[in-house]
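[Automated response] Your request has been received and processed.

Submitted sequence:
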Amino acid sequence: MKTFKIGGVHPRENKLTAGCAITPAPLPQQVVVTLSQHIGAPAQCVVAKGDTVKVGTLLAQANGFVSANIHSPVSGVVTKIDTITDGTGYQKPAIFITAEGDVWEESIDRIETLITTCDLDAQAIIEKIDQMGIVGIGGATFPTKVKLMPPPNMKPEVLIINAVECEPYLTNDHALMLAKADEIIVGIEILMKAINVHHTYIGIEENKPDAIELLKQKTAHRNDIEVVRLQCRYPQGGEKQLIDAVIGRQVASGALPVSTGAIVQNVATAYAIYEAVQKNKPLIERVVTVTGKSLTRPGNYLARMGMPISQLIEAAGGLPDDTGKIVLGGPMMGKATANLDTPTGKGTSGILVIPDTEAHRQEPSPCIRCAKCVAACPMGLEPYLLSKLVAKSDLETAEDRRIYDCIECGCCSYSCPAHRPLLDYIRLGKGRVMAIMRARAAEKK
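Generated structure:
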């Protein structure tokens, strides 16, 4: 069975919501729509306080090439344009909207019929994806239009759909595949047309046999879409690891993934592209896994962007008394938040409520030189050394040792028997090294 070649771990899966169908979350009374729901510059606000908006109304325009449009997830009145503290503690510009009813823009097709034919050419498809604010919603939130426009010297040969969902606890992609397989396949066809490739691989880990079987049935009559069953191994959902697992090609250090001939898109992004191109629907809602061992109603909830995470936790039965930590995302790459008013966004894949007995890190002890972190690193790095270099502020050597190649998957910290905070140091050092590299590149211009 296929998998990637270097490193990786297999944490307990804890897919508590694997059997949960998608449930629409209650409509929020107020939303806080941040203008940084994507990698790149914040979008530029185009509405003012007092404006009336509908579901799908453009709120903010992309502000630069690596940016994305933001649309209203509710109908109502813009009550404030201000900054908020997001889930990671940073100040972000945001638009506050008080909901009134649920009135959608007339241009959005809300009829539950499958539209299989797309008459748009490649350029028009990419423009539509750009207009509808589609980003990679597997977690990275990279603007999709940018990925679909690789450098002229790099020609994509295949499309790889990331349906791996290797992060423990999360099942939102799994639920979406079971509910919207036909729409996902049309989204894949649209993507193939946009980047002019003639073959697609859908990579799915073996712990989702029902999704594998369903998509194999849906594609059994065709030779251009192939479902690839993958061994369960984290972080197989990483772009570079998935390319290695599916087509056996490695992305060179510092190179773009498309240099291997593959463009990777998340399965939920493929569905969002179907809705954008075929239904004229902006990215204003997504499936969020709300889970935790003490929740009474964990599930996969269809949530409007900008609703507070407290409302989704309430839909899942309310905050348990033994809560020790709330993580946005999964336990490996997610980030803890102390603010229950944190709004959901395009990149909110999950809300994990961790009980107090599991929420605390163990006290670190000295490194025992076991090299388990080296064996676990899927990028072939030396985490013990990188963390030490950062602690000693030796950023020059850290750069030489390719700290910038770290994908922040957490395999090193997970595998460390001494409970060293390896990723914490590496993430800090990576940020500093990347800033130095950007400054150096700017000086050469």
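Summary generated for your ticket: The radius of gyration is 21 Å. The CA atoms of residues 152 and 258 lie 11 Å apart.
If you did not submit this request, please reply to this message.
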